[in-house]
Amino acid sequence: MSVATVPTRVWDLPTRLFHWLLAAAVIGCVVTAKIGGNAMLWHTRLGFCVLALIVFRLVWGFVGGHWSRFGRFIYAPGTLLRYLRGQGRPDEHLDVGHNPTGALSVFAILAVLAVQVGLGLVSDDEIAFLGPLNRFVSPETGLLATSLHKTWGQWLIIGLVALHVLAIVVYLVKRHNLVKPMIDGDKALPPGTPASADGLAQRALALVLAAAAGGLAWWVSRLGF
Predict the structure, then answer these.
(1) Cα 117 from Cα 99, distance rounded (Å)
(2) Most buried residue, 10, 25, 30, 45, by most Cβ within 10 Å?
(3) CA triple 153-157-162, angle to 5 deg
(4) Phi and psi (nearest 5°) for 186?
(5) Conformational region of residue 53, where left means phi above 0, alpha means psi within -120 to 50, and beta covers everything else
(6) Angle at CA 137, nearest 5°, toward 150 and 110?
(7) Total-model pTM
(8) Cα-flanking dihedrals φ and ψ of residue 189, to 5°?
(9) Alpha-carbon torsion 39, 111, 22, 49, what sign?
(10) CB of 213 within 8 A of CB of 25?
(11) Which of 188, 191, 204 is nearest to 95 (CA)?
């Protein structure tokens, strides 16, 4: 017997916008880095956009919608193992928001992006770019940061994004669409499943936080002047 479902808000609008803006910014950073030359100006701008987005998400992970909060997708090792064995309990709602494996992907991407942005902030390519925080580190550290930013950092991001896309395709084959809820925010779920708050108050708060995160990124960008 099939279980009745109702549309349930899982991803609030700020989380959805963050997701797609971050995807666009990261793709733009990779493309402009490959082009080089004058495109590096946009690489830098997009890098600061990534910084602002990460800062916003870190705060939103504590005050955002129910399923966007870190507390909802930080899983114990035992929970991850039970999920991999297909032994998750119905009351845990492991497949509503970020499931245990998806959560690992989210945290990995955020961590690598944060490190990559940090490396960019202190880098010095000795040609046309000097990170705004470079003056706070030694020349040797700046050059090492540049090397890591261009090599390991770049390929880690490309690899994680590729794995993320592959996972989406695998779930689509299993008839589990992960893209649609990240567009309209809703999933068809059993009645009583907790929903994320996504009203005007939450969106206004997100707007204030986004403005503050953008202001912080702009302030950091001016430290090099």
Answers:
(1) 27
(2) 10
(3) 150
(4) -110, 150
(5) alpha
(6) 50
(7) 0.94
(8) -130, 160
(9) negative
(10) no
(11) 188
- Give the Cα separation of 36 and 50 in Å (integer): 19
Q: Which residues contact 66 (CB under 8 A, 6 or more apart)?
A: 72, 97, 194, 195, 196, 197
Place of tokens 């493309």: 31
pLDDT of residue 225: 67
Token output for 122? 């202190």
Is there a contact between 68 and 196 (Cβ–Cβ < 8 Å)? yes
**DSSP for 90-110, written as a single string:** GGG-TTTSS-HHHHHHHHHHH
Residue 159 token pair: 């690899």
Identify residue 140 by its one-letter amino acid code.
E
Let me know: does 221 contact 132? Beta carbons within 8 Å: yes
Radius of gyration for the chain, computed over Cα atoms and rounded to the nearest angstrom: 19
Domains of the chain, residue spans: 30-224
CA atoms within 13 A on the CB side of 133: 14
DSSP 94: T
Amino acid sitting at position 99:
N
Distances (CA, A) of 16 to 29, 40, 182: 20, 28, 6
- Tell me if 167 sits within 8 A of 173, measured CB to CB: no
Task: Copy the structure tokens of residue 161.
Answer: 């994004």
Whether 81 shows a pLDDT value over 70: the answer reads yes
Largest CA distance in the chain: 67
Geometric angle at alpha carbon 38, from 53 and 160, rounded to 5°: 40
pLDDT tens across 179-191, in order? 999 999 999 999 9
